[in-house]
User: Fold this.
Amino acid sequence: MRENISIKLISEELNLQECIDFVQDDACGGIATFIGTVRNHTKGKEVKRLEFSAYTSMAIKELQKIAERALEKFDISKIAIHHAEGLLQIGDIPVIIAVSSAHRGASFKACKFAIDTLKKSVPIWKKEFFKDGEVWVNAHP
Amino acid sequence: MRENISIKLISEELNLQECIDFVQDDACGGIATFIGTVRNHTKGKEVKRLEFSAYTSMAIKELQKIAERALEKFDISKIAIHHAEGLLQIGDIPVIIAVSSAHRGASFKACKFAIDTLKKSVPIWKKEFFKDGEVWVNAHP
Amino acid sequence: MTIKTLFFGITRDVIGKSNIEFDLNEGQSIADFQSILAKNYSGLTDIKSYAFAVNEEYVNEDYIIKENDIIAIIPPVSGG
Amino acid sequence: MTIKTLFFGITRDVIGKSNIEFDLNEGQSIADFQSILAKNYSGLTDIKSYAFAVNEEYVNEDYIIKENDIIAIIPPVSGG
Assistant:
């Protein structure tokens, strides 16, 4: 792993400060972050909890690729992408992305690129649990 | 102050977790943040430290206006804008902006709007200290 | 040749297993394999769409499956 | 009327004071006041530009200064 990239896919609670500390760089003027939070509803239905499962080895490779592409595309210094696996409750944090850059525009763009791409390409799946059942998100037409 | 806005302009260290906890909302899917960090150089010159001073009462009003405009312009839930006053060292955090929203696009946009506007309109001034002198940023033609 | 196939997310629920070994002929493509899957597991047709990865990299339909490949069925992802 | 004026950032350094009371006539605008300032404090002309606030709100040149107003000289801001 390159020294300006931190990738994690773990069953423990994600640590925001760890991501900030990783990307913090004395040559940088700012850090943009995106912190996912588990929502209590989806399409009007109350969500009780979520479960994330992953093709872990491939997911880590895909996360790494996103980080590398972000470093190529944008004038940024460091990037951390941490994602949780397993059961999450409402308000828990499934994902943290943090990006540092000398000028803030680049870190905003890279952060948005990373979360948008993650949601399209990384083999991680979310199951939503309702009072009356459970559903794999995005799975059905 | 509205219950979905947290504004601070303080001499103590800013607290990222406090901003996150304030904007965290069970109805929201994500939080975008911007964290300013003191850079060790400016235009090729090494910066030793910074000092922020403010027209405090007016600055708080202007910060509040930015937060209110962000809530009007974007589909966001809550916003925190915390800014530091006084002496800061390299790596210290002069500003934190955190925004929560149901859908992530809105919080990214609002966060960028808030920092861009803050840098244009809020009566806070930064003095950079170099080895051989000090300069008010943006002051001279 | 015997090819190991991994199932995730909804496809794992539909198939009822996390992995299956398939007997394939040399020269068969991912498209060929998809037909075999669809024939054997009709439940898969209820899924919006799914992609394939071989050895942890996405591949397209034309990919020719090789000995020792590990195929993964990737239903629509929903991380983040 | 006596009008209190506040100085911040570089203007405070140039003037050497954080506030000054000026004697102004009724009906004078911010533009008039700016001329008075420029005449008395030539150092201000070295500054890129500066704005004015009255009672903690930005005002433009046309604003007519009123009794009890508190004027603030706002040099280019650099927060964040």
